[in-house]
Amino acid sequence: MASLAEIRARLAAAESNKGGQSQSGGDNAIYPHWNIDEGASANVRFLPDGNGKNTFFWVERAMIKLPFAGIKGEMESKQVQVQVPCVEMWGDACPVLAEVRTWFKDKSLEDMGRKYWKKRSYIFQGFVRENPLGDDKTPENPIRRFIIGPQIFQTIKGALMDPELEELPTDLLRGLDFRITKTSKGGYADYSTSKWARKESALTESEQAAIEAHGLFDLSSFLPKKPSEAELKVIKEMFEASVDGQPYDTERWGQYYRPAGVQAPAGSKPGNDSAPAAKPTPAVAATADVDETPPFDVEESTATAPVASAKPTQKAEDILAMIRARQKQ
């Protein structure tokens, strides 16, 4: 497990690099903090990552949401949305963001750019020590997962850089609880009053026993699978179709990425040069991305405004024409 000094060094290096740039399944292991009532708080205790190679006690996830004008072949199909992984998570160039970045040079395309920008979230694990959700039941393994948006994450990260903090907040004996408090601002959920506890506390005997019995999760195992070259081509094709206002085509893309609730076409198999379809992201995870209020910074855009109609407009057609023109160069 990394020390507090190592975490601080990595965070400081990440901030320095950023400044130099131009630019689960069906169980209830995920704790839905976004469902707590306005004015309520949940007290949680974060735990280390089970992957000892991870300096931090979280992993970062970046997803891109592609809206489609329904599903091809369905007469009364409503607009659907497909989430795909942004390969910048692995340090690779993202074919979607390569196009979208250029849109921010044109004021008239900024809204379109924000719609297709990557949505960041961070996966943690730990115990829920005070739970305001009356209908939430603690699973057999009480070590829960938390999908945290950038607003809460900045509060978490900010405290780690405080020189007065002497121990890691995840220390089993001298760690700190974190209180997630939900309010509202401008019609969006607001978590800016969330904060770390001031007093250290040890895990209880039952909490320590749970760690002994179940072990800690390797948080990277909850990230989406890295797309293959074939899947990257599919992602780019889906992106262009989405911008063009086309419906989602299950026959073309169903074996790779699908909207929630849509099954892969019968007998379909990915080509020999591609990996199996990525496991779907739990629907509740998408809700956790709605964690910020406008205006957004391009690199940290996370809030989800009501999805606009995917019906093609002249603007969308112009964008697609620009994309195709570049491909021919």
Bin the strand percentage. Answer: 15-25%
Which fold does the CATH topology refer to? Replication Fork Single-Stranded DNA Binding Protein
Strands, count: 9
Low-confidence stretches: 18-26, 271-313
- State the CATH superfamily name: Replication Fork Single-Stranded Dna Binding Protein
CATH class: Alpha Beta
Descriptive notes:
The protein is of the alpha+beta class and about 325 residues long. The chain has one domain (about 5-225, about 285-305): Replication Fork Single-Stranded DNA Binding Protein (Alpha-Beta Complex), CATH 3.90.198. The protein is about 30% helix and about 15% strand. Helix 2 (about 95-105) packs antiparallel against helix 3 (about 110-115). The longest helix is centred in the N-terminal third of the chain and has 16 residues, at about 5-20. The protein is globular. It starts with a helix and ends with a helix.
What are the SSEs and their pairings?
Layout: H1 4-19, E1 41-46, E2 59-68, E3 80-85, H2 95-103, H3 110-116, E4 119-130, E5 144-148, H4 150-160, E6 178-181, E7 183-185, E8 188-190, E9 195-196, H5 205-214, H6 229-243, H7 250-253, H8 283-288, H9 314-328
Antiparallel strand pairs: 1-4, 1-6, 2-3, 2-4, 4-5, 6-9, 7-8
Helix pairs in contact: 2-3
Short description:
By secondary structure, this protein is of the alpha+beta class. The chain is built from 9 helices and 9 strands.
